[in-house]
Amino acid sequence: MFFIISIILLIFIGITVYFIVDTKKNQTVEKPPYVPDFQDEQLQKKMLREAQICQESIMTTFDKMLDYSEGSIRILDQVINELYKKKNLSQGSLDKLIVTFGAYFGQTFLNNLSGMWFNHPNFNLPIIFSPKALFEFSPFEIIKQKFQHIEKYDLYIAYQDLVRQYIKRLNELRS
């Protein structure tokens, strides 16, 4: 009788510990402070159009094709390097390039993974937000980093890092 009660007690303790650990594991996944409850179709179209302008400009100016693939981020990185070396950019031109290149960078992420453009109340420019992974980032900040650290910052590595973070986040939410 004592043996049966001990086994039942051990099972009960095991189940309790399992649920406590599982609950704590789920609590470690941080949610963004602001989660949109709708998708702004006009913003999606606007950012897609900006990304298309990037494609067209790079094709006509540099004779290079961007196709929203992960590999095209390397081309974008090369174009920024070439552009930066050839031209003395005014702040206004730089701001326009950041928006155009950032739109392409963000749209590439959206086309290959998931998410949407979102006007976050704390940012001047839209961000990418993935409700599926509760993941957000600013492609414009990434492009700014590229322009600030032209030789040291690789957009392709930054993109791959974002993909890894996104997948990690998805896996955290699933477990």
| Quaternary form | single chain
Strand residue content = 5-15%
Strand order across the biggest sheet?
1-2-3
Number of helices: 6
Task: Estimate nothing, just give the exact number of structural domains.
Answer: 2
CATH class (first level) name of the largest domain: Mainly Alpha
Mean pLDDT: 85
Compute the separation of the termini in Å.
38 Å
Unreliably modeled segments: 24-29
What's the number of extended β-strand segments?
3
- Bin the helical content: 55-70%
Described by strand count, sense and barrel closure, the largest sheet is: 3 strands, antiparallel
- CATH architecture name of the largest domain: Up-down Bundle
CATH topology of the largest domain: Four Helix Bundle (Hemerythrin (Met), subunit A)
Write the element-wise H/E pattern from the N-terminal end onward.
HHHHEEEHH
Structural features, described:
The chain has two domains: 1-30; 41-174, Four Helix Bundle (Hemerythrin (Met), subunit A) (Up-down Bundle). It is built from six helices and three strands, in the order H-H-H-H-E-E-E-H-H. The chain has helices at residues 2-27, 41-62, 72-86, 91-112, 139-148, 155-174; strands at 116-118, 127-130, 135-137. The chain has a three-stranded antiparallel β-sheet with strand order 1-2-3. Strand 2 and strand 3 (135-137) form a beta hairpin. The longest helix is centred in the N-terminal third of the chain and has 26 residues, at 2-27. The chain is elongated. The protein starts with a helix and ends with a helix. The relative contact order is 0.13. Residues 24-29 have low confidence and may be disordered.
